[in-house]
From TrEMBL:
This is Pyroglutamyl-peptidase 1. It comes from Elaeophora elaphi. Keywords: Cytoplasm, Hydrolase, Protease, Thiol protease. Belongs to the peptidase C15 family. One of its GO terms (biological process) is proteolysis. Transmembrane segments: none annotated. InterPro entries: Peptidase_C15, Peptidase_C15-like, Peptidase_C15-like_sf. The keyword Protease applies. GO terms for cellular component: cytosol. The keyword ATP-binding does not apply. GO terms for molecular function: pyroglutamyl-peptidase activity. Pfam families: Peptidase_C15. Signal peptide: none annotated. Gene3D superfamilies: Peptidase C15, pyroglutamyl peptidase I-like.
Length: 236
């Protein structure tokens, strides 16, 4: 009997272009480096879709939604830069309201909220958490890069700018395969090469979680004749 090839997985990875004091955005450099290297070394049966987005609400709204609709990805990982040196933060969720800060076009979303947010003005009611186990992701990179001068942290506050905005849109599409990672500016001990390796490890660990959850769901469905509900809570 001929070997049946595993179905191809689609992984979307996004970064941001320049804004404010960041004339050269580290997130753009990392996603472009991964696009050049490919991800064969971490996931053999996957294609990588890379997109660098302008720091503008309307563009991000259109681009992220289009990526979901066009590619039906198995995993979406958004990257953005933050100001904490030597720290990589895995964000557990995002909020759909409170976007008062102007983008590079001097614009804000209508009513200062994502169009996908619910009608409630209550912040707690507009928070969505990823279904991925973020603590396990942190543990994976801590173990892999224990000798490096990098801190790995969980965060439940991605801010209220384009980082959080892009994440919220993806969480609305499918929270079980969406993630946001904040990376620092580069320096001598936290280089482009190192951060690229770390992001690849996060992608690898995330897709493993997605595939494991699918297998468990399939076994539950076919083993019992019906699907068993699963609840995953990762917000801090």
């Amino acid at each position: 009997m001929a070997n049946v090839a595993e179905p191809e997985l689609t992984i979307v990875l996004t970064g941001f272009g320049p804004f404010g004091l960041h004339n050269s955005n580290p997130s753009e450099k990392v996603v472009r480096r991964i696009a050049e290297e490919g991800i064969e070394d971490i996931q053999s049966n996957a294609r990588i879709i890379v997109k660098v987005m302008p720091v503008a609400y309307d563009d991000v709204q259109d681009i992220v939604s289009e990526l979901w609709e066009k590619y039906h990805p198995d995993l979406v990982v958004h990257l953005g830069v933050h100001s904490v040196n030597h720290a990589i933060r895995i964000e557990t969720g995002s909020c759909g309201i409170g976007y008062y800060q102007d983008d590079i076009k001097s614009q804000t979303p209508e009513d200062y909220k994502c169009p996908l947010a619910n009608s409630s003005s209550n912040e707690e009611g507009n928070i969505i958490c990823t279904g991925l186990d973020c603590m396990k992701l942190v543990e994976a990179v801590r173990m892999e890069f224990a000798e490096e001068s990098v801190q790995f942290e969980l965060s439940n506050d991605p801010g209220r700018y384009l980082c959080a905005y892009s994440y919220y849109i993806s969480l609305q599409h499918d929270k079980n395969c969406s993630l946001f990672v904040h990376i620092p500016c580069f320096n001598k001990s936290c280089t482009l090469e190192l951060v690229t390796k770390i992001v690849k490890k996060i992608v690898q660990s995330s897709i493993q979680q997605v595939l494991k959850a699918r297998k468990k769901k399939s076994e539950s469905l076919y083993g019992s004749g019906r699907q068993q509900p699963q609840t995953i809570t990762n917000c801090l």
